[in-house]
TrEMBL record:
Alphabetized UniProt keyword annotations: DNA integration, DNA recombination, DNA-binding
Pfam families hit by this protein: Arm-DNA-bind_4 (PF14657), Phage_int_SAM_3 (PF14659), Phage_integrase (PF00589)
InterPro entries named among the record's database cross-references: AP2-like_int_N (IPR028259), CB (IPR044068), DNA_brk_join_enz (IPR011010), Integrase-like_cat_sf (IPR013762), Integrase_catalytic (IPR002104), Integrase_recombinase_N (IPR010998), Integrase_SAM-like_N (IPR004107), Tyrosine_recombinase_XerCD (IPR050090)
Keyword DNA damage carried by entry: no
Start and end residues of each Tyr recombinase domain: 167-364
Domain Core-binding (CB): start-end pairs: 63-146
Name assigned to this protein: Site-specific integrase
């Protein structure tokens, strides 16, 4: 590396190596316009020292929104589910870009970010959870900007976003669960409730379940795809990698699924060329996905009929986990059935059940040792 002279302008310039980027590509820093060779040498030594100390920051006028929509989203595109990426793009376009559109990435402060959160809460009337989702985008994007040497530190790291109040978990006991199943067994969507309360599957997983995902010989089903919350898109993936799982079915559920398959074949035959074959276990008369809202309407109506406490559909999943853990089923097994990414998620979520489980285990162990 050395300093060069621009013979036409009479000024000096240099190119310095800045190592390699995250993709292993060689990076170079070019500076020109120095009046003397000595001045150019001094600047080159300064830059090389910053590179060695890992504190070099690019001299850039990059707009934050351009970085967000370009480099950052590109880096996330291959890692995120389509639905998650769509949510990120919506939040960037709808909320982040209009507020920060004029700001260079290096001029954004922690105070500006916190004022933005206050603006979302007061002006846009967004919920704490929605602002938390936006906070995750901003925090992640500034972290990437630091890695890419656009910034020396992240202003989002210390920014305070509104805390999301945790929703109280409501579950049914065994009596309420069996009462609901009895009250709903004649309903056309009964299989959805049966699956929810015997497998702990999510609503999106139940409505995305296909016949080819069920192995009747082995008595298992494979969770491989999901239906979007609006019922308009089928995603060929699951919420997380661990959500893609195999669940053993009880004999009764297998029998009901066999009956459901017969109904499916009759529907297909009756609809003829109008039938759109998505291979869905739960579908409309034309084979298309069920709108999740219709499932929820039926769910709320059946809860009244069964005279059980009103809970969310997602609480059926919590009910399954709670009933399993209260019957001393190993938390690791429960974790695998629910498709949690880490057993700590299972233990933290259902910690209220574990004391009684531990107590019962201690009694059994004591009986085994001492009679």
């Amino acid at each position: 590396m050395k300093v060069h002279k621009d013979e036409k302008k009479g000024t000096y310039w240099f190119v310095a190596s800045a190592g390699k980027d995250a993709n292993g590509k060689r990076q170079q820093i070019k500076r020109r316009g120095f009046k003397t060779e000595k001045e150019a040498m001094r600047e080159m030594r300064k830059l090389l020292q910053q590179v060695d100390d890992n504190i070099y920051i690019k001299n850039t006028k990059l707009k934050y929104v351009d970085f967000l929509k370009g480099e950052w989203l590109d880096s996330k595109a291959l890692k995120l589910r389509i639905v998650t990426l769509g949510t990120y793009k919506h939040n960037i376009t709808k909320h982040i870009a209009p507020y920060f559109k004029k700001h260079e990435i290096g001029n954004i402060t922690t105070q500006m970010i916190e004022k933005f959160y206050a603006h979302l809460s007061n002006t846009s009337r967004l919920s704490e959870r929605s602002i938390q989702d936006i906070h995750k985008i901003i925090k992640s994007s500034f972290k990437t900007a630091v890695k890419r040497k656009y910034l020396s530190f992240s202003p989002a790291e210390e920014a305070q976003a509104p805390k999301v109040p945790s929703k109280e978990m409501m579950v049914w006991d065994l009596n309420e669960t069996t009462r609901f199943l009895k009250a709903s067994e004649k309903h056309e969507l009964y299989i959805a409730f049966e699956l929810a309360l015997t497998t702990g599957m999510r609503q999106s997983e139940i409505l995305g379940l296909r016949w080819k995902d069920i192995d009747f010989d082995e008595g298992v089903l494979h969770v491989r795809q999901t239906l979007s919350h609006d019922g308009k898109k089928i995603y060929q993936d699951t919420k997380t990698k661990s959500s893609k799982r195999t669940i053993s079915l009880v004999d009764r559920t297998l029998d009901i699924l066999k009956d459901q398959r017969k109904k499916y074949k009759k529907l297909k035959l009756a609809a003829g060329s109008d039938f759109q074959d998505y291979d869905l276990v739960i579908c409309t008369k034309r084979g298309t996905p069920i709108n999740p809202r219709n499932l929820l309407r039926s769910f709320y109506s059946l809860m009244k009929k069964a005279e059980v406490p009103k809970i969310r559909f997602h609480d059926l999943r919590h009910t399954v986990a709670t009933l399993m853990l209260s019957r001393n089923i190993n938390p690791k097994v429960v974790k695998e059935i629910l498709g949690h990414s880490d057993i700590r998620v299972t233990l933290d979520t259902y910690s209220h059940v574990l004391p009684s489980v531990h107590k019962e285990t201690a009694k059994k162990f004591g009986s085994m040792l001492f009679g």
